[in-house]
Design brief:
The complex is a heterodimer. By secondary structure, chain A is α+β, with helices and mostly antiparallel strands. Chain A is built from ten helices and 18 strands. Chain A folds into two domains: 2-216 and 334-424, Zn peptidases (Aminopeptidase, 3-Layer(aba) Sandwich), CATH 3.40.630.10; 218-332, Alpha-Beta Plaits (2-Layer Sandwich). In chain A, a hairpin with a 2-residue loop joins β4 (117-120) and β5 (123-126). In chain A, α2 (25-45) packs across α10 (411-424), α4 packs across α10 and α9 packs across α10 (411-424). The longest helix of chain B is centred in the N-terminal third of the chain and has 23 residues, at 24-46. The two termini of chain B are 25 Å apart. The chains are: A alpha+beta, B alpha/beta.
Chain lengths: 426, 426
């Protein structure tokens, strides 16, 4: 009885509260937008690499403390978690921003362009927020600032996740979403729904897009090692050629996509990004090593691809008298937008962006470690456009490139979207 | 008139007698010469020098030849030596060649005169070792020159001794030892009528001789195929052109030039890819891939056909995938052809040197020799001299070019006798 009635009462409460605060909100958004852009420019100018977000984390923690939130810092090495208990009953929802930057030398002409350098894999590199995590962080800080102002009207509890190392922890280190979860960030209070947004440099500023169900791909890194037998290049019959075996493997693993995967269900991509073997023309080497990535949009197909690779690679090698093995290291899972949330949330996105500014997009083979939160609670992830008015998508600097650029005018739509979601009580 | 006819008849008779019997004096000096030969060889073995860096080796050879009383040209082809011995009797101009360079290999053989020499090779500090028997070739040819000098008055024709550097190739790319010597017109004055050489074989019983008639050793062409695709993210291969996939297909299909296009009843052919390098990480599809390999042929026309097929195939495969490929072929050696008439005439002389049971016709091999360049200018013959100790099996012999390479010295004198017999075999 209670259970059937409760949603009804909640619905009434939300509608009334949303209406109650709706008058204040435009003022609050106007007030926060300037600060948010200042924050974003600060993060942009002083970017830090994954698991090295020391100043960024401290800045976030200090800002949230000053706002009056309950702050846990550090979490997952350099991350921050803050909790805001609303004055009304409601669920515990998580909002997540990622805070790390990339080893890229910035080439944009903005006055707050990064001049930072760091070391990455032993090399000196430039550091740049070339994927919009600076915007994500600033938007979530601004969301916290707005919600704090209307705390008494907030239904339930909001937990803000400022997550390090979304781009992947340095080799041998833990980090990112899995480490946040491992440290219990979703457990106390227990998160009932999780939300995140991502900037899209090729989508018009202020537009929102989402994809129900599988939205971003799982990403598995693989390493294939082939062990042959060395010989002189003039007498290959005395050895077992690991380069020929590698060629066979690379060609045949594509048939896992084209012949074994039901592509009417979801796409699959297997890419070999690097192969290295041998030192000179006339020596047949002993070993070859390939590195690659697997992208899937269906968890079952992902497991089938793993099984096929594990079967096919040793078998091809064996057929030629060699040995081969594959190591698969999971980077992200399929980022799955909960179907229930995908039905309920768009209405609130429309309130934030305007009804004609919300579109349903297609899935992509890009990957997001936000997917890990989805294993613990229903989750929903959407995109926010950052393409300057008058530009066409092909003129946008792509993510992860030195020319990546975001128009700031749509950032406030991100804040509005989060606030609307929170006030929706979903 | 009559007298002249009688003289000619006598000359013919005596020369045919010479075939059966080399000057008796030589038989007496062989034992003492053998001791010297082994001393020289051990000195050379303990003091090896890399290709085109045979400064001390060249000087030692030139000084020794001068001390024997030969007319010496030094340096030739940077570090090589040529010596001429005019016989007291009429006859052809015969060239005999030894190669003098060592390899970037660290010696592991447990012998008292093992090399401890190191040098710089391709920017690396390496051990230097006579791991292919060139020390023996040099010592044998020095001993041959010494022996023939002792019987100069009875010598039919002229003997030109070639001590050639850089048989193992030019460390800086570019022409190797034989090619460089021929560019200096070393076979023109006096004009060489026929050319001989020997090569030690670690796996052939000590003191035995083997030779192939016709094509004996393979041509060696280094090839480099550069595939140019278009970079993209590993998750979105459709945005690029994958040079690794194209390389895999090229590497696989190159083998069909051997298996489907070459008439293998005529001669064997080997295409080996010794190195394949592309890319830097798992999830970036690189722009280029580089394939380096070696082509071995035992028939000149098949070699040229294979060149044409490789160029056509690599480009067409690349084009079919939307990439481009360039093929660069650098010739290291030509097919070493043992002139069939020369082999037939040489057979009795070699039998006298080694004993009839110890001379065998052996199959062609895919190893290569830059002695092939001498064969372009005159009928030539290269025979193998065994260096495998008695009681050892061929498979127990350490291969050429390895740290454990070892030669039994007791057969070296057979090499001297073989050259001497060939010279008197007119």
């Amino acid at each position: 009885m209670k259970y059937t009635l409760l949603p009804f009462f909640l619905f009434l409460a939300i509608v009334s509260s949303a209406q109650g605060v709706s008058k204040e909100l435009p003022q609050l958004y106007k007030k926060v937008e300037g600060r948010m852009i200042e924050w974003r420019r600060h993060f942009h100018q002083y970017p830090e690499l994954s698991n090295r977000e020391f100043k960024t984390g401290k800045f976030i923690a200090d800002t949230l403390t000053a706002l009056g939130l309950q702050v846990k810092y550090p979490v997952a090495k350099t991350g921050v978690v803050a909790v805001l208990k609303g004055g009304k009953p409601g669920p515990v929802i998580g909002l997540r921003a990622d805070i790390d930057a990339l080893p890229i030398v910035e080439r944009t002409l903005v006055p707050f362009a990064s001049k930072e350098t760091s070391t990455y894999n032993g090399q000196n590199v430039g550091v740049m927020h070339a994927c919009g995590h600076d915007a994500h962080t600033a938007i979530l800080l601004a969301t916290a600032a707005v919600l704090k102002q209307i705390q008494s009207e907030v239904p339930g509890t909001v937990v803000f996740f400022f997550q390090p190392a979304e781009e992947g922890a340095p080799t041998g280190e833990e980090g990112g979403a899995p480490l946040m979860i491992k440290e219990g960030a979703m457990d106390d209070p227990k998160i009932q729904a999780m939300y995140g947004l991502h900037m899209a440099s090729g989508m018009p500023a202020g537009m929102l897009a989402y994809k129900p169900g599988a939205a971003q791909a799982s990403s598995d890194l693989f390493k294939i090692s082939v062990q042959g037998k060395g010989s002189h290049g003039s007498m290959p019959w005395g050895g077992v050629d690991p380069i020929m075996v590698s060629a066979e493997i690379m060609t045949n693993i594509q048939t896992i996509v084209s012949r074994q995967s039901n592509l009417t269900k979801a796409p699959v991509v297997i890419s070999v990004g690097s192969i290295h073997s041998g030192v000179r023309s006339n020596i047949i080497p002993e070993t070859a090593e390939m590195l690659g990535t697997i992208r899937t949009l269906d968890p079952q197909m992902r497991l089938e691809v793993h099984a096929s690779l594990k079967k096919m690679i040793p078998a091809i090698a064996e057929s030629m008298g060699a040995k081969a093995s594959i190591d698969i290291v999971t980077q992200t899972l399929v980022n799955y937008n909960d179907l229930e949330l995908s039905k309920k949330i768009p209405e609130f996105l429309k309130r934030a962006a305007g009804a004609d500014k919300v579109i349903e997009s297609t899935w992509t083979t890009a990957a997001e470690d936000f997917s890990f939160y989805g294993t613990k609670a229903p989750s929903f992830f959407f995109s926010l456009g950052g393409l300057a008015p008058g530009k066409t998508p092909d003129q946008a600097g792509p993510h992860h490139t030195p020319d990546f650029y975001l128009d700031e005018s749509g950032f406030i739509v991100g804040v509005k979207a989060f606030v609307e979601i929170v006030l929706s009580g979903k | 008139m009559k007298k002249l006819v009688a003289l000619i008849a006598l000359a013919v008779l005596s020369s045919s007698m010479l075939n059966a019997q080399t000057p008796a004096k030589l038989t007496k000096i062989y034992p003492e010469l053998e001791t010297k030969l082994i001393e020289w060889r051990r000195y050379l073995h303990a003091n090896p020098e890399l290709s085109f860096a045979e400064m001390n080796t060249g000087k030692l050879i030139a000084d020794s030849l001068k001390s024997f009383g030969l007319s010496v040209k030094y340096p030739v082809a940077k570090t090589g030596v040529i010596a001429i011995l005019k016989g007291g009797k009429p006859g052809p101009v015969i060239g005999i060649r030894a190669d003098i360079d060592a390899l970037p290999v660290t010696e592991r053989a447990p012998i008292s005169f093992a090399s401890k020499v190191t040098a710089d090779y391709a920017g690396q500090k390496v051990g230097v070792m006579h791991a292919c028997g060139h020390d023996a070739h040099t010592a044998i040819l020095l001993a041959t020159a010494y022996a023939l000098k002792q019987v100069q008055s009875q010598l039919p024709g002229t003997v030109v001794f070639f001590f050639q550097p850089a048989e193992e190739g030019n460390p800086n790319g570019g022409p190797g030892g034989a090619e460089t010597m021929l560019k200096e017109n070393v076979m023109d004055d006096p004009k060489i009528d026929k050319m001989y050489a020997l090569h030690m074989s670690a796996a052939q019983p000590v003191g035995t001789i083997g030779y192939a008639q016709g094509a004996a050793m393979a041509s060696a062409d280094m090839f480099k195929i550069v595939v140019k695709g278009k970079g993209s993210h590993g998750s979105m291969p459709w945005g690029g052109v994958d040079p690794i996939m194209v390389s895999a297909q090229i590497i696989q299909n190159l083998q069909t030039i051997v298996s489907r296009q070459s008439n293998l009843t005529k001669a064997p052919l080997v295409i080996s890819v010794g190195s394949l390098h592309s890319g830097v990480r798992s999830n970036i599809i690189p722009e280029t891939a580089e394939i380096v390999g070696s082509l071995r042929a035992l028939d000149e026309q098949m070699r040229l056909d294979a060149h044409a097929s490789m160029r056509k195939m690599a480009k067409a495969i690349a084009e079919s995938a939307g990439a481009t490929a360039t093929v660069e072929i650098n010739t290291s050696t030509l097919v070493t052809v043992n002139d069939v008439d020369l082999c037939k005439k040489a057979a009795p002389a070699l039998a006298r040197a080694a004993g009839a049971d110890n001379v065998k016709i052996i199959p062609w091999i895919t190893g290569s020799e830059d002695f092939s360049y001498f064969g372009q200018k005159a009928p030539a013959m290269l025979f193998m001299l065994g260096g495998l100790p008695k009681g050892k099996k061929p498979e127990e012999a350490a291969p050429h070019h390895t740290p454990d390479f070892y030669l039994d010295e007791s057969g070296f004198i057979v090499g001297v006798r073989a050259f001497v017999e060939l010279v008197f075999n007119q």
